[in-house]
Amino acid sequence: MPAMQAEQTETSGETLLKATDIKRVFGKGNAGVTALSDIRLDIPAGSMVALKGRSGSGKTTLLNILCALDEPTEGQVFFRGKEITGLPAKERNALRRKEIGLVFQSFGLIPLMSAYENVEFGLRIAGAPVKGNREAAERALERVGMRERMKHRPMELSGGEQQRVAIARAIAHEPALLIADEPTAELDSRMGLQVMRVFRDLVNRSGMTILLTTHDPGIMELVDHVIALEDGKIVSETTNHKPLI
Ligand SMILES: Nc1ncnc2c1ncn2[C@@H]1O[C@H](COP(=O)(O)OP(=O)(O)OP(=O)(O)O)[C@@H](O)[C@H]1O
Ligand SMILES: [Mg+2]
């Protein structure tokens, strides 16, 4: 990925996430589906990267492998230079809990809990020590502009606000990497833009690295790098030297 590597040396120089020759086959023999092949990528630390591609092109499969939820059939993934493929489940879970935050299209908030309780509960189930949880949850809600509304339940919030609470839950443990699978797909363009602004702020102010998937052409202008997938292969990579946010 020449364009991204050039950018990387210009900025922080560190590669947060690297994948080499990833292949993922679901099932066996004639019934096997090759969801990904020949995937090589470098995600520079402190950047916002979008994976785009039609439905079925392999975006979610790739995200799952990059965040150690799934193992590739072939190839290797490195997080800060350390190989994470082949690690025992316990170590992969520990890596995710400490270093990675996940955001999904459908927000995934618990309806009976307030915004604050959702974020605090997220910290608890990730095994964070209870001491300091209140401050961490409130800090995360502040970062996404939802502290004022933290006593509200999800049904009292707009879709964009719910997604911001879900982002607060994903970043409360201050991960280095945020992975978001179609985070704006259920939002109108104005609310989608709010979410993208929150992401940009996390990159600029905390040096977080964000990898997201999207179908929305408008989002390509807002990120630092775009990687296009077609039928499980990378077909292009572009760098925005002046992203619009
Ligand atoms: N667990 C699985 N078992 C079998 N095939 C799978 C599995 N998961 C994904 N696939 C197949 O792998 C391919 C890539 O799927 P994936 O979900 O990664 O696509 P996507 O780009 O995320 O699509 P969408 O935009 O619809 O979310 C598809 O052909 C899909 O049917
Ligand atoms: Mg998907």
From TrEMBL:
One of its GO terms (cellular component) is membrane protein complex. Residues 17-245 form the ABC transporter domain. It holds the Pfam family ABC_tran. Keywords: ATP-binding, Nucleotide-binding, Transport. The keyword ATP-binding applies. GO terms for molecular function: ATP binding; ATP hydrolysis activity; transmembrane transporter activity. The keyword Transport applies. InterPro entries: AAA+_ATPase, ABC_transporter-like_ATP-bd, ABC_transporter-like_CS, ABC_transpr_LolD-like, MacB-like_ATP-bd, P-loop_NTPase. This is Putative ABC transport system ATP-binding protein. It comes from Paenibacillus catalpae.
